[in-house]
Amino acid sequence: MTERVEGHGGELALAALRAHGVREMFTLSGGHVFPLYDAAHKAGFPLYDVRHEQSAVFAAEAVAKLNRRPGLAVLTAGPGVTNGISGLTSAFFNASPVLVLGGRAPQFRWGSGSLQEMDHLPLVAPVTKHAETVFSADDIPRAVSAALTTALTPHRGPVFLDLPLEAVFSVGDTELSEVAPPAPVEADPEEVARAAALIAAAGRPVIIAGSDVYAGDAVDALRAAAEALQVPVFTNGMGRGALPPTHPLSFAKARRVALRNADVVVVVGTPLDFRLAFGDFGDAKVVHVVDAPSQRATHVQPAASPAGDLRLVLTAFADHPGDRADHADWVAELRVAEDAAKARDAEEMAAETDPIRPARVYGELRRVLAPDAITIGDGGDFVSYAGKYLEPAQPGTWLDPGPYGCLGTGMGYAMGARVSHPDRQVCVLMGDGAAGFSLMDVESLVRQQLPVVIVVGNNGIWGLEKHPMRAMYGYDVAADLQPGLRYDHVVEALGGAGELVGKAADLAPALDRAFASGVPYLVNVLTDPADAYPRSSNLA
């Protein structure tokens, strides 16, 4: 079934975007893309603008990650596009279905030196699934639809379309085909059966579930597989919360014990990268379950690696017809280690020391965050503690920069989260180093009435660099920030609110005020610069 659409290039693009479920546009104003704004304005299509293009792309990525649908950023030509490349690259590493529409200098004057004339495709092609210049208005709906289908097809990821000035401003008339979701890809049945048999026969199996489990809507299938095979589950990325912390097979603190003693490690929906020791788990056999053959590890040789729709693979694991080993003793052993680690964490999170230890900040946040709160990490040292101490209760509530590790996601992610979930708490956990990348976009949140809470761990240093450099060389350089800087005053100057907290006893009332404020509110917590996250001493 097709629909006839006509109008200028912006209207043609918007028709295709809406057909694919895009519901909002993030941008920073630029003349090359005015027709897209015109189309949105006339149609009552939500449009949110920012102070730096990277925030527009990060906002679109947050929408894509949280909602499992495309996010849209519109960037003007030249520096608009180049400013957004870090966001595109993060989306590429995070498999986020983001579409960036870029303005482009007019083709009919190409080579004459028009304003911001630049061929963007060679820059964005390495960090997108598809990049194309669309030279005619009539071709825009086809290009948008094809790009979004590509973005949503596993392995998901960002796409880019360049729209020359005359194409997006011209009037066109074309057919828009009905949108069909990508068909699920079935993994090789023999590979799935081999993997299931390995897991079922293992004496000490472990599952590690990552972001693609959430992106692929495979959370229920993961739970079913874990319960059917009685395998303990650890999570990372947006896999966090796939099993609630109260689930008898949900583990977070006993990972070192589990991976040291496991005989089969099942990694589902996340790469075998630096976060997982590059897939080296000693003598344990590795089962790597991925959503597309392109995601199979090439630097290690798994015992099995099914590639296909994660729901189908995990459901097949749950329905495994063969014998199953009894894992009760293994689960109980890990539960002892988990409970002991939680007891240690509880002591650290209740620490009354001044300067404030980062663990205490997270102890207070655990008290005030609702089960469905969206928690965003933007930082290094301070946010590392978040991964240790916060345990999301629900899937789809955790946003971090992912394996690319790009700072500056915070305000864009906050905007995308607030737009996606206007009735939930949105809390950004930010290091004072990361604050330098995006804090100006608090003004965008204020102006568009998008309240969030920002908690800055302010230790006046680049923590993940200062301590290791001192350990290696006996000194450090380029690792200090202004101690006690008033980031709360910055937010106040931009129209929000905030306060400085220097004593542990003052944390709880400050957080209560922040979450009750109804405006962008920054709690500036002076944390102990000597208290470094343990990973800061390990550059690997």
From TrEMBL:
Which cofactors is this protein said to need?
thiamine diphosphate
**Thiamine pyrophosphate enzyme central domain span:** 192-316
What's the Enzyme Commission number for this chain? Answer: 2.2.1.6
Q: Which Gene3D superfamilies match?
A: 3.40.50.970, TPP-binding domain
Thiamine pyrophosphate enzyme TPP-binding domain ranges (all copies): 378-525
The residues covered by the Thiamine pyrophosphate enzyme N-terminal TPP-binding domain are 9-121
| SUPFAM superfamilies to which the protein is assigned, alphabetical | DHS-like NAD/FAD-binding domain (SSF52467), Thiamin diphosphate-binding fold (THDP-binding) (SSF52518)
Q: Which GO terms describe its molecular function?
A: acetolactate synthase activity
Q: Which Pfam families match?
A: TPP_enzyme_C, TPP_enzyme_M, TPP_enzyme_N
Keywords assigned by UniProt, alphabetized: Thiamine pyrophosphate, Transferase
- Tell me the protein family, please: Belongs to the TPP enzyme family.
Name-wise, this protein is Acetolactate synthase
Which species is this UniProt entry from? Micromonospora rubida
